[in-house]
Every structure is written in structure tokens, then in C-alpha cells.
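Table 4 source record.
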Amino acid sequence: MTGVEKPQTGEKKLESFREKFQAKHRSTDGHFVRSKAEMLIDNWLYMAEIVHAYERKLPIEEEVYCDFYIPTGKVYIEFWGYDNDEKYLARKQKKQAIYQKYNFNLIELTDEEVQNLDDILPRMLIKFGVQAY
């Protein structure tokens, strides 16, 4: 092959998503995230001394990225922010199916739950053996 290879279809979609929703919110640990809710989650994980990654590719063939990954317990966290957008809901259902297909440990958070992380997240994490401090 000569020249620059064209990106895969999944990569194009990912790039357009990343352009549309830029990671412009800086969390306490230095991660740049895409929303204030994700910043709250990231800051909570950091303050609870839980090692985490932001937007990590799932270890599968499909081109799918999680919102957060916690190596201890191999836990993925998804924040679902748009309930009234059809494209978003379709993407959400596809991602949920992939998590289920590979039997990944998944924590799903809504806007309401993000407003109450201190009460909700420790209980969700402990199910996967992750202790918040």
C-alpha cells in the first residue's frame, strides 16, 4: 500500500464523536473529560484513591471505548447522559450488548446517581471487590 491508509468506519465515527464532544473539562488528576458529570466521576475516583483510566479501548475486536476503567476488579464505568436522543440511545444499547456479550464488569451511572456518588458508587464498586477510601 502507498500513501496514508484511510481510517476504518469505526474510527471515523469515533473521531466525529471526539470532535463534537471535546474533552475540555480538566479533572483534579489532570484527565481531560467530555462533561461536567464525567469530571465529577473522575474527581470522585481520584479522591477515593482508586486507580482509573479515562476512555480506554475495550480489549475486544470491536472499536469500543469505555468512559472509565478500574484495573482493580477489571471494572468499567459508563455514564449515560442523554436520555432523549435517539442516536445516543441506539449507541447506548449497542455498548450495553457488547459489555454483556463479553461478560465485563460494568457500572452504569445516570445524571441523578452522579449527583449522589458518595452514597452510590462505593456500594457498586464493592460488588467487584473495589474498596473506596
